[in-house]
Design a protein that fits this description.
Largest sheet: 8 strands, mixed
Helix content: 40-55%
Low-confidence stretches: 1-44, 125-130, 151-164, 215-223, 482-496
Oligomer: single chain
Strand order of the largest sheet: 10-25-24-23-11-20-22-21
Structural class: alpha/beta
CATH architecture of the domain at 9-108 and 160-270: Distorted Sandwich
Number of strands: 25
Shape: elongated
Number of helices: 33
CATH superfamily of the domain at 9-108 and 160-270: Calcium-transporting ATPase, cytoplasmic transduction domain A
Mean pLDDT: 75
């Protein structure tokens, strides 16, 4: 079975006005090509503008400064703007820019409404028949289906009402705030800490502008690039984490031409149009298949069998009289009988079609999603099939940072020399005051609380070193890492893995240099080190000692620790100036920083593995760090130590397609992975018939989220806007443990669907067999169309509610995942329903043919026949009610376990019995075709229903074959 993302553009496409990211968001990427920004086309844009967009997307500094574009000033000329004043604050000019280059908004698709949702069931043969026979049943089904189907669109509509977030721009040299959706190409945008870049553009001015790009969810702080004249490229959705001095950018592309939108469009062009099937689709196909392959043939056979019985005088009327008398050629007599036979055939078709299945699926999905949202496991499910699909996944591919880990860096180790110091007291007693003061000074001057790494260092320094940030006031900064500005330095350059500061102490006017950076880079700059055991005197750092320190660094790296070093030296005056010395430094210490795993992460991963779901981790970390985190989380176990369990993204790319298909199942960890690597992995898994869920939180994960059968993103701290908008499920607490809970809840949803399908098919198949056999063998039908429609209206509707309200238990999940090609009806379900069908057939025909002895009459009069039919109907109905208990658990014999916890189930069972008793006893007893049952006859009916419990228990002892039996019958593929 597979329940995957729907291809319907109505239910899957999310297009929004800008909040923090210019979003064209579609759950199935192949639909992206349908959405075009009507305000602009590529033909209306100049060749130079096309080149500008390409240069920005490719970060091509050389082409930006070539003779054609002539740098940022030349770009401004092409875009019709001014780098200082911005575009003129004139509506005509702004409209001209919008028409020429496009707007920052998108046309929102028409949501799927109620009447569009019910159009499909309106066309179904069974529903039309119900309308003729029982208008109430029709209205109930159509309304429930329509409301359930359009709920995702309604909920989505409410979620997409986005406040008009404003951002500051310069127009005509004056500052003003405009909605992000009103930004046009050429606007000069003012950025401050906390803002999200509203469009792609170029850096104009400002100091220490640091951006966490939407795609940078997993990179370390030392890899966050600084935006400056040498790296002037900004992309929509990036978040400003640091910067001062009036940071400004010039917008070069908006809307559909933004980098990530273009990337998703390219992905959509390369996506296959593979047909995907949901549970709803499978139910619809099953219904049609049963009608065509079972209902119509049996109806025709029944009609053909009745004709010879009628003309030979072997059929009786409801009063027990022979219908056809030899020699009676009155047309009205035999025409009336023929119409009754046609009605019988028509009833057979109605009975055999499990029309309530889709109602049950809709109610189950709707109720379960609401329950999950109430339990705070997820905040949204914008896909009709998101919940149900999650219940059948075979592989979960998850990112590391912010999902498996806390995304809260902590200092785990400190080396003030060759030996680690763990406790504050130990360091305070042994370290010299001089070394401690140098370390405090270095941390205060080279660290600011703008990145997780620096926050961790400062928090540790306050706790362990008792650092006083007033250190800054006791010195004067002379120079910072070859720059003239006074920006606070962070480890944020991919090229420079270190940062330095030249400062003068106010106390003695001495000049010192402090460096902070990656341990390997800082070690190369040092010629001596301080050791905690040497009373503050420097020790020579010869080659042998450097080897020891490198081993310390390697040991920390292997345990997923980011190793940061601090170094210092006093600087003498050289040629009338103080150089920012980069050699001959004294190593002050090493700190090991780690993003710890979330609590109970190992248990959550184990829950998924117990459910037969393979958990894989992707990260941009190096292979040793990735392997350590995977082992700590339980993703990589001892049994996975075989070759190929941990690889890099580059190695996976180098594999041939056949090698990838062969090795993908063995891979548990992919390190140094890019967005394309993640996408390639998901595609390969799907080709291997895996049902894939992707858990991610950054735009690096967007393509994988789009390609996956289920996309899951984090909702509060870790998740970026674009990742959330393309996901099916958004987790509220940013914790992978919640993914495991959603998996358990989704498995419960899928199981509830199967329970109701088993229950519904039991009723329909039993009724079909009873009608056909009784018509062919006895010439009369104890279950009329009115009986059957009443069963569908009361029993099936309330049963769908009773079985849909089953909640997941606290027991560990232990079941194999449902394969992509497995049918909805399993062999276990088929075994259970056939046992009940056979029992109900035996019961009904026993009551039918042994009616005289049971009722204590010698001849079957009209009243006796009506009493017999009423007894049969009540017994048959109570068999269904008692069979609801059997459907609670498809495999376990004890169907009462946890019954008291499912109070709604008990309530709906009580309502079913109460409605049946009151309706039939108080209202229908006046009908000519019903007779009031005596108390002992009610006892027989309840006793017959009770026997279905031990029948179900015995049936579950029968083994079933592995291959689905229905495949042989051609009812499923």
């Amino acid at each position: 079975m597979i329940a995957s993302k729907q291809t319907s553009a109505d239910s899957r496409t999310r297009i929004h006005s800008f909040s923090s990211f210019p979003t064209i968001i579609a759950c199935k990427p192949k639909k992206l090509k349908k959405f075009k920004n009507k305000n602009t086309t590529m033909d209306s844009m100049s060749t130079k503008h096309r080149k500008i967009m390409k240069v920005v997307k490719e970060k091509n500094l050389e082409q930006l400064n070539d003779k054609e574009l002539k740098g940022i000033e030349g770009v401004a000329t092409v875009l019709g703007t001014d780098t200082v004043k911005g575009i003129p604050d004139d509506e005509k000019k702004i409209d001209q820019q919008r028409k020429k280059f496009g707007s920052n908004t998108y046309k929102k698709p028409r949501p799927k409404g109620f009447f569009r949702a019910v159009w499909r069931p309106l066309q179904e043969f069974a529903i039309l028949n119900d309308f003729v026979n029982m208008l109430a049943a029709f209205i109930l089904f159509v309304a429930a289906y329509g409301i359930g189907s359009c709920m995702p669109s309604s909920a989505h509509k409410s979620k997409t009402i986005i406040s008009l977030d404003e951002i500051e721009v310069l127009r005509g040299g004056k500052s003003k705030k405009v909605s992000k959706s009103e930004i046009v190409v050429g606007d000069v945008v003012c950025l401050k800490i906390g803002d999200k870049v509203p469009a792609d553009g170029l850096f104009l001015r400002g100091n220490n502008l640091l951006l966490l790009e939407e795609g940078d969810g997993e990179i370390s702080d030392s890899d966050v690039p600084e935006v400056n004249a040498m790296n002037p490229f900004l992309f929509s959705g990036s978040q400003v984490v640091d910067g001062y001095g009036g940071c400004q950018m010039m917008v070069t592309s908006v809307g559909m031409k933004a980098k990530w939108c273009e990337m998703m469009r390219q992905h959509s062009c390369g996506s296959s149009d593979e047909e995907i099937v949901t549970v709803e689709d499978q139910v619809y196909e099953l219904t049609c298949s049963i009608r065509k392959k079972v209902g119509v043939p049996i109806a025709l056979l029944g009609f053909i069998a009745l004709l010879p019985r009628y003309f030979t005088g072997n059929t009786k009327s409801s009063e027990g009289n022979q219908e056809f008398v030899d020699g009676d050629i009155r047309v009205d007599v035999w025409a009336s009988s023929l119409l009754e036979f046609i009605g019988t055939a028509f009833t057979t078709v109605v009975v055999v079609i499990p029309e309530s299945l889709r109602l049950g699926v809709a109610l189950t999905t709707f109720y379960s999603k609401k329950r999950m949202m109430a339990d705070m496991e997820m905040v949204s499910d914008t896909s009709v099939s998101g919940c149900e699909t999650m219940g059948s996944v075979t592989t979960i591919r998850t990112s590391k940072t912010g999902i498996l880990t806390m995304n809260q860096m902590e200092v785990k180790e400190f080396y003030p020399g060759e030996h680690s110091v763990l406790e504050k007291e130990a360091y305070s007693i042994n370290a010299s005051t001089h070394v401690k003061n140098l370390l405090k000074e270095g941390i205060a001057l080279t660290t600011s609380p703008s990145t997780p790494t620096d926050k961790a260092i400062l928090s540790w320094a306050v706790r362990v070193l008792d650092i006083d940030m007033e250190v800054k006031s006791r010195c004067t900064v002379l120079r910072r890492d070859h720059r003239d500005d006074e920006a606070v330095l962070n480890l944020n350059s991919q090229k420079k893995k270190r940062s330095g500061v030249l400062m003068k102490r106010e106390v003695d006017n001495t000049v010192h240099v402090h460096w902070k950076g990656e341990a390997e880079a800082i070690l190369e700059m040092c010629s001596s080190y301080y050791d905690i055991s040497n009373s503050g005197n420097p020790i020579d750092l010869d080659d042998e000692q450097k080897v020891k320190f490198r081993r310390i660094v390697q040991h920390m790296t292997e345990r997923s620790l980011q190793c940061i070093a601090f170094a210092h030296n006093q600087v003498e005056l050289v040629d009338g100036r103080h150089p920012l010395k980069e050699d001959g430094l004294v190593l002050l210490g090493l700190v090991g920083i780690k993003d710890p795993c979330r609590p109970k992460m190992k248990e959550a991963v184990k829950d998924c593995q117990n459910a037969g779901v393979d958990v894989k981790m992707f990260t941009s970390d190096n292979i040793s760090s990735a392997e350590d985190i995977a082992r700590e989380c339980g993703i990589l176990l001892d049994i996975h130590d075989q070759e190929g369990a941990v690889i890099t993204g580059e190695a996976f790319r180098r594999y041939s397609e056949n090698e990838r298909m062969e090795k993908v199942d063995k891979i548990r960890v992919m390190a140094n992975s890019s967005p394309d690597d993640k996408l390639l992995m998901v595609k390969t898994l799907k080709k291997n018939d895996a049902i894939v869920a992707v858990s991610g939180n950054s735009t690096n994960d967007v393509l994988a989220l789009l390609e996956a059968d289920v996309g899951i993103s984090m909702g509060i701290k870790a998740g970026t806007d674009v990742a959330k908008k393309v996901s099916d499920i958004v987790i509220l607490d940013d914790d992978f443990a919640s993914v495991a809970r959603v998996l358990k809840s989704s498995i419960c949803i899928y199981n509830n669907m199967q329970k109701f399908i088993q229950f519904e098919l039991t009723l329909n198949l039993a009724a079909l067999a009873i009608i056909f056999i009784s018509a062919a063998c006895a010439g009369e039908i104890p279950l009329t169309s009115g009986y059957v429609l009443w069963l569908n209206l009361i029993v099936n509707t309330l049963a769908s509610l009773a079985l849909a309200t089953e909640r997941p238990t606290d027991e560990p999940i232990k079941r194999q995942p449902v394969g992509r090609k497995e049918p909805l009806i399993s062999n276990i379900m088929l075994r259970n329903l056939l046992a009940q069908v056979l029992y109900q057939i035996v019961v009904v025909f026993t009551l039918m043919f042994k009616a005289k002895s049971i009722l204590g009459v010698e001849t079957m009069t009209a009243n006796s026949i009506w009493k017999r039919n009423t007894l049969i109907f009540h017994a048959f109905l109570l068999c269904q009610v008692f069979n609801e208990f059997n459907a609670r658990n498809l495999e376990k014999k004890n169907v009462f376990k946890g019954l008291l916890r499912d109070r709604l189930f008990i309530v709906f069972i009580a309502i079913t019995i109460s409605v049946e008793v009151m309706f039939l006893e108080l209202l229908l007893n006046q009908n000519d075709y019903f007779e009031r049952l005596e108390l002992w006859q009610w006892g027989i009916c309840f006793g017959i229903g009770f026997v279905s419990w031990p029948i179900g228990c015995v049936a579950k002892c029968i083994p079933v074959p592995e291959k689905p039996v229905l495949c042989y019958l051609g009812l499923v593929n």
